[in-house]
Amino acid sequence: MAELLKGAPVAAAISEELMKRCEELKKKGIIPCAAIVRVGERPDDLAYEKGALKRFENIGIEVRHFVLPTDCTRSELLSVTDTVNSDSSIHGCLMFRPLQDRETEKEACKRLLPEKDIDCMTSGSLGSVFTGSGTGFPPCTAQAVIELCDHYGIGLEGREIAVVGRSLVIGRPVSMLLMQRNATVTMCHTRTADLAGVCRRADIIVAAAGHAGLITSEHVRPGQIVIDVGINVTPEGRLTGDVDSASVEPVVAALTPVPGGVGSITTAVLAKHVISAAQNCA
Ligand code: NAP
The whole model's pTM is what? Predict the structure, then answer.
């Protein structure tokens, strides 16, 4: 049976390190602070926010809340962005997306100061993930995959990695981060001719397709590491990944569970970005 690569120990180790860094900052009179901007009350936003608040509180990060109604105007949202930008006590901003008004969302993202962009909302941050310039913060989920590999001592250099999914939120940025670690990455998508063959050839599979049970025993071989980023809800309301764990787990060397895998690392990465943003300010 595969080793289960759980996210909780990874998140705990990151948090422990962040508590120390937070203490150091506070000794210098800097209180790390994140703004949370939410429009409406979407259940998945509220669930993520609850997890982030708990993590921030545990580490010692302060939070400023900006909650707007779903029918808020363009100028109301943009004025929140301006407030976040102009308040030097706020070091980073998490804005829940997508918004109903995609144009205003784009404008708000564009307006956010790059140094406060802890969730890769601006094209500048995303650009730096692709150029590898080291400025800006990558998307938290993509970075969570790297943190998981580092924590469990999964070497990336020279490994063949199949990333299933090419979105700008996960597939493409995680591919870039893996390539920066000298992995050889094949990015797969709905038009990939032989997904099972590409996955079987890889040493590591990162599944980020948003398709429950896509990766089956047909896609894997013994010795592989499978990182399941997918979060899907079954018709019965159960959370499940992109990997059919019942058929994959008996074959591969290691697998991340869903829930309890990559998803449980993302708020720790978000907190890491807030602390780094506060440190950069100092
Ligand atoms: P997305 O924007 O819908 O992108 C999905 C990607 O997967 C697309 O590139 C698509 O290919 C590809 N794809 C879909 N079905 C496929 C198939 N049958 N075969 C091959 N490729 C396929 O989704 P996303 O935002 O990247 O999210 C992906 C998953 O991650 C979702 O389940 C989401 O809920 C989850 N997620 C997890 C976390 C976490 O913290 N763990 C955070 C955010 C999201 P095309 O480009 O050809 O359409």
Answer: 0.97
